Amino acid sequence: MSYFDFDALQIEDRKMHEVKQLSLQLAATQASLLIVGEAGVGKTSLARYVYGKSRSPRLYCLDCKNPAGFDFGRIDGGTLLIEDLDCASTALQNELMRLVERTDGTRPRFISTSRRDVRAMVKQELFRQDLFYKLAVVHLEIPRLEDRVSDFPVIVNFILEVAQIMHGKTGLRLSPEAYARLNSWSWAGNIRELENVLERAVVLAKSSMIQPSDIQFEVAVEDLELDFAPGMSLSEVEKRLILQTLELTAQNRTRAAQMLGISIRTLRNKLNEYKEEGVL
After folding, report:
1. Bridge partners, residue 174, by sequence
2. In the 8-state DSSP scheme, what is residue 56?
3. CA distance 143 to 15
4. pTM for this prediction
5. Is 114 within 8 Å of 86 (Cβ atoms)?
6. Which tops the pLDDT comparison, 111 or 212?
7. Alpha-carbon distance 122 to 101, whole Å?
8. Neighbours of 221 (CB within 10 A)
9. How far is 4 from 47, CA to CA, in rounded Å?
10. Could you tell me which CATH number the domain at 219-280 has?
11. How many Cα atoms are found within 13 Å in the side-chain-facing hemisphere of 81?
């Protein structure tokens, strides 16, 4: 999915509102723009929004994670969207610098996205300083979804409508309990994660009312080594699962409780038990 109509969204969050207004102001210019933010916050959507509001005749897209086959020679003005600028190799940075220095009228307008602080990369000599100054005339930082509390209901409704269109459904609504389940999650994957969860809920919904059971979160367990073995008691399995989930979440009890499907109070009681046993 990963598309947002910023004109259709009634943005309430102050910081995001400022980002949108500055985007509109910049759209009519040729200023190079760097959009930064965590994975999944909507950097590419905002970049395409700026391009859509500009008078640029064409858009070229360069993925710095996978630049193989990209032909710099075909660029003739327009706008170049550079995704994941922080992943650009030295060779790719050199190619971009040659493009920046063009004087034959084929130099494009540059809009870049990055998850990392490119300024810090410059200081660490991981990124060319001269290229940074050319590509980052203006910075826009998109806040995390978790920090956009006032925008959350609007974003949920927008994604829900788009997901229904995609899957040929209409009239679906979230039950209060389902919405509360969504609202309690910390959204480490930001809007992209929310899209994933809501699209799955639309597909799974058995009636017009989406229930909490339709809201299923993806739990990242690839780094979790579960040392369970046949013959272990259920209480021991439970203890190891709780402690290893806490380790996975860097001791974030709220997130661990969410992942385990228990209340924070239950988790707290379990941890108190383990302390009495001398485990913690």
Report:
1. 210
2. -
3. 7
4. 0.76
5. yes
6. 111
7. 19
8. 12
9. 11
10. 1.10.10.60
11. 17
Residue among 43, 257, 259 nearest 144 (CA):
43
What number of other Cβ atoms are within 10 A of residue 222's Cβ?
Answer: 7
The whole-angstrom separation of Cα 56 and Cα 79 is 6
Q: Is residue 43 within 8 Å of 81, Cβ to Cβ?
A: no
Please state, in angstroms and rounded to a whole number, the distance separating the CA atoms of residues 188 and 146: 8
Domain boundaries, the chain: 14-143, 149-214, 219-280
Strand partners, 63: 83
**3-class secondary structure, 111:** strand
Q: How far apart are CA 214 and CA 67, in angstroms?
A: 38
Residues, the chain, total? Answer: 280
Helical residues (DSSP H) of the chain, grouped into ranges: 14-27, 43-53, 90-100, 118-123, 129-135, 152-166, 176-183, 190-204, 234-248, 253-260, 264-276
Extract the tokens encoding 157: 């409704």
pLDDT of residue 43: 95
What CATH number was assigned to the domain covering residues 149-214? Answer: 1.10.8.60
Distance CA 92, CA 127 (A): 11
Q: Which superfamily, per CATH, for 14-143?
A: P-loop containing nucleotide triphosphate hydrolases (3.40.50.300)
33 in Cβ contact with 26 (< 8 Å): yes
Closest listed residue to residue 139, CA positions, set 14, 13, 37, 5: 37
pLDDT digits (tens, 9 = 90+) for 230-253: 777 888 888 888 888 887 776 778
Backbone angles phi, psi at 19, to 5 degrees: -60, -45
